[in-house]
Amino acid sequence: MSFSSAERKKRSSLARGVVVLTACVVAYKLIGYVYFLALSTHYSSYIPTSFEIDKTVFSGDRAGGFIEGCGVAIFELSAKTSASISEGGIAFLNNNSTIRDSTHKRYMSWQETSIAERSKNYLFLQLVHEDAGGNTCVDLPRSLREDISSAISSPGAFYSGFNQDTELLVIPTLRLAVFSHDR
To answer: How far apart are CA 135 and CA 65, in angstroms?
Structure first.
């Protein structure tokens, strides 16, 4: 079967289009992966130096306005770190609050959950409750959102702020550290 010159050009043009489209999809996925790695690395710098992190469970952010936005990173803590937090509680956390990228920046005094629903000044409440427009900071997987909601509503987890825009929730029973910020 022989194709005319016009038909060959048409097929060749279509093949080039498919190759370009495939290359764009691969590049988009690669950029997304590099962004995820950069974001989780940046957010992990706000975790206390004494916390051993096994892996990043989730990382995401949302930008709005000129320099406004919010973000969250959820890290799986090592079994050793979780056990130390469970055993030592607030005393352990208050003695191990220096963030990774600083020798003098520390989290403020730690508190144990539960946190009242009406206490809207805590950033991680924004992760599990929608605002008036039906928005949350990031689209957390449902199971993580439910785990965080349960943890902030009952004793056994701990939270602290680094400043008015940055907070950390530690859930030792789930081996999770939930970092959130809003600016």
So the answer is: 15
- Better-scored residue on pLDDT, 154 or 34: 154
Reported residue count of the chain is 183
* CA angle in degrees (0–180, nearest 5) for 24-26-29: 110
What is the radius of gyration, based on Cα positions, of the chain? 22
Give the mean pLDDT of 91-119: 79
Angle, CA 154 vertex, CA 142 and CA 123 arms, to 5°: 60
CA distances from 1 to 7, 68, 137 (A): 12, 61, 58
DSSP assigned state of 47: S
How high is the pLDDT of residue 164?
A: 74
Beta strands 111-112 and 53-64 are unpaired
Instruction: Tell me the per-residue pLDDT of 44-103, one tens digit each, with 9 for 90 and over.
Output: 888 898 899 999 998 877 766 566 677 888 999 999 999 999 999 999 999 988 877 666
DSSP per-residue codes, 60-81: EEEEETTTEEEEEEEEEEPHHH
Q: Per-residue pLDDT for 132 more than 50?
A: no
What b/e sequence results for 103-140 when a residue is b if at least 16 CB atoms lie within 10 Å of its CB, and e otherwise? eeeebeebeebebeeeeeebbbbbbbeeeeeeebbbeb
